[in-house]
Amino acid sequence: MRSLAAFVLAALPAAAEVPPDRAVELEHIVTQDCGSCHGLTRAGGLGSPLTPAALVHADAAGLALIILDGIPGTAMPPWRPLITEDEALWIADYLKKDPTP
Amino acid sequence: MRIAPLFALALFATPLWAGADGLTATGDLGLVVERATGSLLLIDRSDHAAVARIEGLGDLSHASLTYSPDERFAYVFGRDGGLTKVDLLTRTIVARTVQAGNSIGGAISDDGKLVAVSNYEPGGVKVFDAETLALVADIPAEGKTIGLVDVPGRRFAWTVWDSGDAFLGDFSGTEPQIVTLGNAGKNPFDAVLTDDAHTYLIGLFGEKGVTAFDLWDESPAPEKFLTDYGKTGEDMPVYKMPHLQGWAFTEGQYALPAVGRHELLWVDRASQKTVATTAMHGQPVFVIAQPASPFVWVNFATPLNDVVQVVDSRSHEVVATLTPGKAVLHMEFAPRGAEVWISSRDDNKILIYDTRTREKIGEIAAQAPSGIFFTARAHRTGL
């Protein structure tokens, strides 16, 4: 796990900066598109729960990598074609911090 | 003073929205799921109008619903495990139970007596009395249940995502009789029953292919087909699972969404051989036959979800590409096919198209609409 963490830290920026307009779009993507599998309240569905409580032990950079590259062999697709690394990290931070609707 | 209470009763009993004669009929009504606000929009198909909003239904992401045989009541299956019975005449919630932590859909028995719900957490199927929503049977499963359909004779079929096992439950007697149909394959994501209740088709996500069970057979065995589509190319990410409810059966063919491919697959119903492939705009989600026509209509997964395409089932050619609005989530046809109603989640609208001219003939405001359900579904098997 340490080597993975090191790789993650090397691969992704430490903090995510996205323009406010894009942040609104990303929030919409999380609610609507992630919500297709993880639920609008992120309580889970075909995908696992993504509430702050469920992600309390998850590392934001690791989450961002899952968002970008998906989990092979599962229904979690890679979002790298649609969002940048900064945006994935922003989503990871958002998931960990933002109270669900 | 004897008149006053009677008058009050009459006011209460006469719906405010009813016609001049004080009566209303439900045959051309429908409900639209407003997924983000946990509400339903009651729509009048003939008037192209929204007539009421019913609120308080919980998390309606991926919500679906079925209708009672008299088309008066809707049973709404919410993501949060909520099962809600809605009265279309009084426009109110008449019963509601949060019956599981996480659920994915449901079905009503052919006689309208039982409502079954397919649950993710805890996995299994729960069956309720359609009148009272009292629990009638609880059938646990070794994982998330998907593809729950009604089968004639007060039966239901369902499949388990984690194990791939498919089941047929008979609830016509005093005790439910559950039989294992067999194993469908790796990670079945949805299933559908053909309109003649002959074939239970299960789409696979964990491997290529579709598995069919012949429900007219006394002891159906799994038959797998489409096992090698797209094997020459790299699969693309699937940003939204295709839905099989509403899979098109037309011209003796199944029109099926390829998984991980921007293609429609045409399979001969009798031989289960692939007869054609149609290149599409994106990952198909819903593939729905326009009633009484050779055409199927297709919508797509994000980010290519502002387009709807129409395909001719004879030539397998795309004959129209429409851009109804942003984030098209669902399409529902008038029962005889004259109109199609299309939900555009991000434009907060329902678009109404004439299916012959393929021109937009109306629109209705709705809050982040997803599924559209006309009451005519009450009389269709497998919906």
Please, could you describe this protein's structure?
With 101 residues, chain A is mainly α. Chain A has a single domain, classed as Cytochrome Bc1 Complex, Chain D, domain 2. Helix content of chain A is 51%, strand content 0%. In chain A, α2 (20-38) packs across α4 and α3 packs across α4. In chain A, 34% of the residues are buried. Chain B is built from one helix and 32 strands. A four-stranded antiparallel sheet of chain B has the order 3-2-1-32, with no helix packed on it. In chain B, β26 and β27 form a beta hairpin. Chain B is globular, with a radius of gyration of 21 Å. In chain B, 50% of the residues are buried. Mean pLDDT of chain B is 91; it is low at 1-15.
Write a compact overview of the structure shown:
The complex is a heterodimer of chains A (101) and B (383). By secondary structure, chain A is an all-alpha fold. Chain A is built from 4 helices and no strands.
User: What is the terminal-to-terminal distance of chain A?
Assistant: 32 Å
Mean pLDDT of chain B: 91
Give the class-level CATH name of chain A: Mainly Alpha
CATH superfamily grouping of chain A: Cytochrome c-like domain
Strand count, sense and barrel status of the largest sheet of chain B are:
4 strands, antiparallel
Structural class of chain A: mainly alpha
The total count of strands of chain A amounts to: 0
What radius of gyration of chain A results from the CA coordinates? 13 Å
Number of domains of chain A: 1
Enumerate the strands of the largest sheet of chain B in spatial order, edge to edge or round the barrel: 3-2-1-32
How many strand elements of chain B?
32
Radius of gyration of chain B: 21 Å
* Unreliable residue stretches of chain B: 1-15
Spell out the blueprint of helices and strands.
The complex is a heterodimer of chains A (101) and B (383).
Chain A: H1 2-11, H2 20-38, H3 60-69, H4 85-97
Helix pairs in contact in A: 2-4, 3-4
Chain B: H1 3-13, E1 29-34, E2 39-44, E3 49-54, E4 64-67, E5 73-77, E6 82-87, E7 92-98, E8 102-108, E9 114-121, E10 123-129, E11 135-140, E12 145-151, E13 155-160, E14 165-170, E15 177-183, E16 188-193, E17 199-204, E18 210-214, E19 223-225, E20 248-250, E21 253-257, E22 263-268, E23 274-279, E24 284-289, E25 295-300, E26 308-312, E27 318-322, E28 328-333, E29 339-344, E30 349-354, E31 360-365, E32 369-374
Antiparallel strand pairs in B: 1-2, 1-32, 2-3, 4-5, 5-6, 6-7, 8-9, 9-10, 10-11, 12-13, 13-14, 14-15, 16-17, 17-18, 18-19, 20-21, 21-22, 22-23, 24-25, 25-26, 26-27, 28-29, 29-30, 30-31
